[in-house]
Design goal:
alpha/beta, Rossmann fold, 44% helix, globular, binds NADPH dihydro-nicotinamide-adenine-dinucleotide phosphate, binds the ligand C[C@H]1O[C@H](OP(=O)(O)OP(=O)(O)OC[C@H]2O[C@@H](n3cnc4c(=O)[nH]c(N)nc43)[C@H](O)[C@@H]2O)[C@@H](O)[C@@H](O)C1=O, NADP+ binding
């Protein structure tokens, strides 16, 4: 089987690639196809069409996207909606046009309305107003789900969607402004501890709650869903509500998270808030029972996951200067 992993150098794509490489070493009859962003710009329709026609993968894992935290989403809305729509349309359509039978794409928990009962079930989709700070990205991710469902209904393809909660781990983006909260705090608390600072400022009130899933769990869940036989997947989803939430089922406040990061990095000073920065959605805990009923649950706890991620950051921190 020839599997194309789009976004293989990213945090999730890299974790998925490592698992598939391990399967290949163990004897699985798979060939892994990858291309860097420089080699293949997935927003370019002609490049994607030529690539898919030449490589003709049997399966595609779409883990490539324009990704960022609340500040990046709020600052570059046109980039987030345009690039993600183009990547999804090009990869999903050209997969179909070149006979790809199975595809897995990654959405996001931000697809759900900002004020729905928690934890959020898959059927909460499209029942209310989205969170403004990441609405463009969320619209693109919802379109990704509907693209897969529409090709399945019209052409009999088997294109699947998983909706990850906030992810973290090795290979994350530690940019001080454009990253997600957990890598941003790991870097900030580490640098404060190294410099002996007495205070670290976190964005917003610290009151919002977030669910954090380690990327290794996400990679396992992705392959679990991709490997499901078609009958099992169909029996547990609806053709027009086909996405599957992936998370831990528990959340912490941003202030609690900051205190966990302070402990892991050895920072002992004061934690203050910057109310001029947006809180975003106050809570987006996902109901993960659909996937649990299919046989998968997360296994990496947050404190252990933060420790592992910090160790990885320490080894790789020279790559994140600036
Ligand atoms: N991280 C998180 O907290 C969450 C992530 N997700 C989803 O998971 C998936 C993976 O995210 P994550 O691994 O964190 O993101 P990363 O930013 O780590 O990886 C994304 C990858 O996509 C590549 N890419 C981006 N644009 C293009 C393009 N136009 N052509 C080719 N390649 C491109 C990037 O390459 P390069 O860097 O060279 O541009 C990068 O390798 C995404 O779909 C994301 O929306 C969902 C929920 C939470
Ligand atoms: C995965 C998910 O990720 C994004 O949504 P988000 O969860 O709101 O994003 P975030 O991780 O950046 O922020 C979470 C919370 O954390 C607080 N916060 C404190 N201090 C820092 C800080 O230093 N950096 C950041 N980024 N946030 C901080 C911040 O104020 C907010 O309350 C979207 O991409 C969305 O589309 C999406 O898919």
């Amino acid at each position: 089987m020839r599997i194309y992993i789009a976004g293989h150098r990213g945090m999730v794509g890299g974790a998925i690639l490592r698992r598939l490489q391990a399967r290949k070493v163990a004897g699985a009859a798979i060939d892994l196809i990858t291309r860097t962003h420089a080699e293949l710009d997935l927003t370019d329709q002609r490049q994607v069409a030529d690539f898919m026609a030449a490589e003709k993968p049997d399966a595609v894992i779409l883990a490539a996207a324009k990704v960022g935290g609340i500040h990046a989403n709020n600052t570059y809305p046109a980039d987030f909606i345009y690039e993600n729509l183009m990547i999804e349309c090009n990869v999903i359509h050209q997969a179909f046009a070149n006979g790809v039978t199975r595809l897995l794409q990654l959405g996001s928990s931000c697809i759900y309305p900002k004020a729905v009962p928690q934890p959020m079930k898959e059927d909460a989709l499209l029942t209310g107003t989205l969170e403004p700070t990441n609405e463009p990205y969320a619209i693109a991710k919802i379109a990704g789900i509907k693209l897969c469902e529409s090709y399945n209904r019209q052409h009999g393809t088997d294109y699947r969607s998983v909706m990850p909660t906030n992810l973290y781990g090795p290979g994350d983006n530690f940019h001080p402004e454009n990253s997600h909260v957990l890598p941003a705090l790991i870097r900030r608390f580490h640098e404060a501890a190294q410099q002996g600072l007495e205070e670290v400022v976190i964005w917003g009130s610290g009151k919002p709650r977030r669910e954090f899933l380690h990327v290794d769990d996400m990679a396992e869940a992705s392959l679990f869903v991709l490997d499901l036989d078609k009958a099992t997947y169909a029996a547990n989803t609806d053709p027009m509500l086909s996405h599957i939430n992936v998370g831990t089922g528990s959340d912490v406040s941003i202030m609690e998270l900051a205190q966990m990061v302070a402990k892991v990095t050895g920072f002992q000073g004061r934690i203050s808030n910057d109310p001029s920065k947006p809180d975003g959605t106050m809570r987006k805990l996902m109901d993960v029972s659909r996937l649990a009923e299919m046989g998968w649950t997360a296994s990496i706890g947050l404190e252990q996951g933060i420790k592992e991620t910090y160790d990885w950051f320490l080894i790789n921190q020279d790559n994140f200067r600036g």
